[in-house]
Design a protein that fits this description.
The chain is of the alpha+beta class. The protein is built from four helices and 13 strands.
């Protein structure tokens, strides 16, 4: 991918533009959601560049499935999760039971704050059948969604396990969080995992997508295909995003 395509695989037009008004009817949100789903299937993400309100974002997200979590993301030093910190957030995926992630930009960082995206939709083209099978045995931890068991702000941590690769009838899905890998793997798993991390590194050098949302724009991604992250931002950043987790 060329340098100009980094922010703009948008030249394949993931930007869902159109009239510059907000929408207020379910039919408009339904029409937009059809375009979002098409972009998620082809590109793995959809950048809604048409300015809209947080209410519009919520309405559209509801058309994509059931919202199971809503989070306000802003620098909040007293919170323990990395999403509230100014540090770099390495490429990763969220809860693998969640199909789609959505972010609405209320206010962007003054300097950057871009979302970084990496597509793993071509994984089967880069690994042998045996390696894919091995990856289905490599478990990665994910936080227990029950906050009575996992709530780092209260000193509670509990994790469940999910395979690095999950083979479905229509596609092969990925779940990867570099800081939630298991403590140990066997020799073959370590070898394949090392090849997988090299696969990600090579793709990051040439195919990393950068999308800097403006206030009033939103971004949706396929969480079982796309890794996401961001660079570091100032501790005084006013960046404020609304995030939703969507199950279909």
């Amino acid at each position: 991918m060329s340098e100009c395509e980094r922010e703009d695989r948008n030249s394949e037009r993931s930007d869902l533009d159109g009239a510059r008004n907000s929408w207020s009817k379910d039919t408009e949100a339904a029409d937009l959601s059809t375009g979002i789903l098409a972009s998620l299937q082809t590109l793995g993400y959809a950048h809604v560049a048409r300015p809209h309100t947080a209410g519009d974002f919520e309405m559209t997200a509801c058309q994509l499935g059931s919202i199971v979590l809503r989070t306000d993301l802003a620098i909040t030093p007293e919170r323990s999760s990395i999403v509230y910190k100014s540090d770099e957030i390495r490429l990763h995926q969220d809860n693998p039971e969640v199909n789609t992630l959505g972010w609405y930009c209320v206010q962007q960082d003054e300097i950057d704050g871009s979302a970084l995206l990496l597509d793993t939709g071509d994984i089967v083209a880069h690994f042998s059948r045996g390696e894919i099978v091995t990856m289905t045995t490599i478990n990665v931890r994910y936080p227990d969604p029950d906050q009575s068991r996992h709530n780092p702000d209260r000193g509670l941590t509990a994790y469940l396990l999910w395979p690095l690769v999950n083979e479905k009838s229509t596609r092969t899905e990925v779940y990867y969080v570099p800081w939630l890998l298991a403590d140990s793997y066997d020799e073959n798993q370590r070898r394949v995992l090392a090849k997988f991390t090299e696969y990600l590194r090579a793709k990051e050098e040439t195919q990393l997508v950068r999308i800097r949302l403006r206030a009033g724009e939103s971004l949706f991604i396929d969480n079982n295909r796309m890794l996401h992250g961001r660079g570091s931002i100032s501790q005084n950043s006013k960046r404020f995003l609304k995030r939703v987790w969507i199950k279909r």
